[in-house]
Design brief:
The protein is α/β, with parallel strands linked by helices. The protein is built from 6 helices and 9 strands, in the order H-E-E-H-E-H-E-H-E-H-E-H-E-E-E.
Length: 189
């Protein structure tokens, strides 16, 4: 895992398994690495990345406090799990991750291999997106990750037997205290 931290510190991009699909990630404070993710995917710069970690505590500095009650309830109920919450971002969250939007998506995947990666990197947070080219299906296995983006990333980490389940996370946000579903996925709210 020291190798992973070294790659990330040097502006590298890694691919890894989550509970839903395979992901690409880099350190959130490295703008060049974030740009590299956009280039790898041929991703539209208007589409933000999300922040993921092994514990919500690690993401607190990236979101505005206090977190609204309904968001707190969903965090307690569904983290870790296949839920991405779109919350108001703090000043620590760079605009190049959120495409200039005032919000940031945060998620805690329920996958032991992903959690292990986070526990071993500085800051324990990754700026992430799915491992695929934009508009193509996301990688569901190590083999697909290698096939789709293998020659473009610095490292693809084996899943260690903790496989992706194949259904995307539900993406939800809030307006006037009410939940808004941006993408229906694994979790029904």
């Amino acid at each position: 895992m020291n190798k992973v931290n070294e790659i990330l510190k040097n502006g590298g991009v890694i691919a890894f398994v989550t509970d839903t699909v395979w992901g690409l990630g880099c350190l959130p404070d490295n703008e060049q690495a974030v740009k590299k993710i956009y280039n790898i995917k041929h991703r539209d710069g208007k589409k933000p990345l999300i922040l993921m970690s092994d514990e919500f505590y690690n993401l607190l500095d990236y979101v505005k406090q206090p977190i609204e009650k309904e968001a707190q309830r969903l965090i307690k109920k569904h983290f870790p799990g296949a839920l991405t919450l779109v919350l108001e971002k703090s000043d620590k969250t760079p605009d190049y991750i959120t495409s200039g939007m005032p919000t940031v998506g945060v998620r805690i995947p329920d996958n032991e291999t992903f959690a292990e990666i986070c526990r071993n990197i500085d800051g324990r947070v990754l700026a992430t997106t799915s491992a695929n080219l934009s508009g193509e299906p996301a990688a569901l296995t190590y083999e697909e990750a290698v096939k789709y983006i293998g020659d473009k990333v610095d490292l693809i980490i084996q899943s260690g037997g903790h496989e992706a389940q194949g259904r995307a996370s539900t993406v939800a946000g809030f307006k006037d205290g009410k939940v808004i579903i941006f993408r229906q996925g694994e979790i029904e709210l």
